[in-house]
Amino acid sequence: MAERTESESRKLLRRLQATMAEAGAGQERLDRITSIIADSMGTEVCSIYLFRDDITLELCASRGLAPEAVHVTRMRVGEGLVGRVANKMRPINSANAPAEQGFRYMPETGEERYSSFLGVPIQRLGEKLGVLVVQSQEARSYIEDEVYALEVVAMVLAEMTELGAFVGEGAAMSARHQQSVILQGGVGQEGTAEGNVYLHEPRVVITNPIAEDPHAELTRLHESVDELRISVDQMLDNAPSGDAEQIEVLQAYRMFANSRGWMRRMEEDIARGLSAEAAVEKEQSAARARMATVPDAYLRERLHDLDDLSNRLLRLLTGQGANTGAQMPDNPVLVARNIGPAELLDYGRSLKGVVLEDGSVASHAAIVARALAIPLVVHTKGIIAEALNGDAILVDGDAGTVHLRPEESVSTAFRDKMAMHAAAQERYASIREKPAQTLDDTVIELHMNAGLMADLPSLPSSGATGVGLFRTELQFLTRSTVPKRGELAALYSTVMDSAGGKRVAFRTLDIGSDKVLPYMKRPEEPNPALGWRAIRVGLDKPGVMRMQLQALIRAANGRALTIMFPFIAQFEEFTAARDLLMRTLDSESKLGHVMPKSVEVGAMLETPSLAFAPRQFFELADFISIGGNDLKQFFFAADRENEQVRRRYDTLNVSFLTFIEQIVERCADTSTPLSFCGEDAGRPTEALCFAAMGLRSLSMRPASIGPVKNLLRRVDLREVRAVIHEAQGSGAQSVRPAVNEWLRMQS
Ligand code: PEP
Ligand code: MG
Question: Atom of ligand 1 at shortest distance to CA of 627?
Fold first, then answer.
């Protein structure tokens, strides 16, 4: 076979394109395609093998092999040379195929006459579709150019949407995308959802893989790559200097965007007749195939970066942006590699669930998902490659499990679980207006946690007494600049309006640690959770805190105002924050603003140190709220974001409960109202034990109020206390087994 010229390749692609566009039965078209390829490549044989399921390939068309073998010959992945190409997704080029290790002769095909073999994978973005093979009698090794040309042809075949119809009766093109898959991720937000996949960044649709004019395509590619480079540089300039991870990713983007090898391969593909988009996608497919085999986690991450960069380039080339016209399905479950908090807020409550390939328990997206009460699963490795728009999906946010294209039996079991949940919610609705009063006549106040205006409508329906924690970070996290005082005042005022006179405890800005504001310069910190965060930032840079306090005072406009300061670790921090509030009240009054009718100033107890603060602190604080999420991580020295340790210590651990009891006693000594507003307050057994330890106020997400109230109304706290004290005395590590046993006996 003579060395191919680029124009020959282009001619071949054009003939292929014309054939694909012709009318007629699919099989005929596929047969014609094999003839065209064989003629153009000067080989006696050209065959197309396609996957009929995850592990089986079927000969679907051939010029040169026995026609009786078509749709009869099948092999498993890894079996024979074709199976090996499919396994590794890499070409095999051999002058003497029968002598190759692993060669398996298929007698029905008559292939024994052919000595040379060149097989290349047919793949699309990590999806294995099949193998394209040419063979000839002459014992010759194909030159690099020919391998390349055949890969380009395989790329064009991969774009043929009807490819799957050729694989026997009833089998489908992408077996992989038909099968049911269970993926395990991490719990981002509890709850369950059934719906259909909606890809946040749907695959760019390439309408024409073959181009007429290589020069025009090259120009398009160069212009788009230039644009890409500029945007990557801008992203790097704007990246927060403290965010080492983001900077590392962007630097990898920049390296790829400037890579000569990447550019050269795409240029060569275009010279052979591919459109600029198809050339980008061919590289992307190769990167995805490598991704599946690279054992090194760091390198895999970098290949992910290249994949993301290719997507950006495709969007620039096609102008499709994030919107490829894909319809949002009914009951959408958003699937994304990652998503920013503002984008997630834009989707809002239209989403039934969110599944992130990356993300983390404490990412901003998770904070928003929690505020919106949307089930969220994070760290779901593989979801992006597996999910297609519209796929059926079940999200089990309680277990961190995702069922993609579930079996009917799984869906049925899942629906049963959701129905039980819904029935329980109905039961809870019947006690909505009733107090959380235990059998021994103790009334526990149940408040709700909120962070968005959109949360407030659930205040009346949840049966909450008020808002025990209004997290004010979201308005800061979802913008690119500091929000204006006027905007905040308007928002806080609407929050108070919606609460209809019920108490709302506004927590001042709690940033730092996991919550990094894009527009705020931060020092790089080895341990951000123990670093410059929350009230520490507020006191060191009082400008933003003062502005927020002014907004709150103006929003109250004569109404009662409740403010609490986060992460107070020592008395002096509380007095300093309180003084700033007092001074702000004073100056606002001088400016003629109406003063709140009352001001309650509380502290969040989130570090063990504050439990041992001087008595004067407990006297000065109008109330104390235990931020159990942080308190627990510091009590056990176990990072709340680290999956490896975050569940290691039980909240009902005897030490932790004893500590809670001590805080209750200290507050009782000074008659300081105490509440608990971490996630644990919304878990019925935990809430019960806190109440038994003496807590009289709990704040939780609205959906938890029903279950917690339901349990509290059925128990006598004196009995629970006795069970806990007995377990404490028995040397048990956790009181949970004893309390669970006692609860079982009650029902
Ligand atoms: C907590 O730490 O328990 C708390 C309520 O604050 P956040 O979860 O916002 O840190
Ligand atoms: Mg906290």
Answer: 3
Report the separation in Å between the CA atom of 613 and the middle of ligand 1, taken as the mean of its atom positions: 20
Question: Per-residue DSSP letters for 415-433?
Answer: HHHHHHHHHHHHHHHHTTT
**Do the beta carbons of residue 609 and residue 570 sit within 8 Å?**
yes
3-state secondary structure of 705: helix
Listed in sequence order, the residues at least 6 apart from 368 whose beta carbon sits closer than 8 Å to its beta carbon are 341, 344, 345, 474, 478
Q: At which residue do the structure tokens 């991720």 appear? A: 185
Q: Give the global pTM.
A: 0.69
- Closest by CA to 202, choosing from 391, 471, 65, is 391
Which residue from 567, 569, 556 is spatially nearest to 600, judged by alpha carbons? 556
Structure-token pair, residue 68:
């009786």
Residue type, 443: V
User: Residue 488: what residue type?
Assistant: L
Virtual CA dihedral for 458, 464, 468, 472, nearest 10 degrees?
10
∠ CA 7-13-17, nearest 5°, is 145
- Taking alpha carbons only, the member of 563, 568, 560, 599 closest to residue 469 is 563
* Closest approach atom of ligand 1 to CA 630: 2
DSSP category for residue 482: P
Pairing of strands 376-378, 353-356: parallel
The predicted-structure confidence for 119-159, as pLDDT tens digits, reads as follows: 999 987 777 889 999 999 998 889 888 888 898 888 888 87
What's the rounded Cα separation, in Å, for the pair 404 and 408?
Answer: 12
- Residues near ion ligand 2 (CB < 5 Å) are 606, 627, 630
**In ligand 1, which atom is closest to the CA atom of 469?**
5
pLDDT tens digit string along 369-410? 877 889 999 989 889 878 888 899 999 998 899 999 998 888
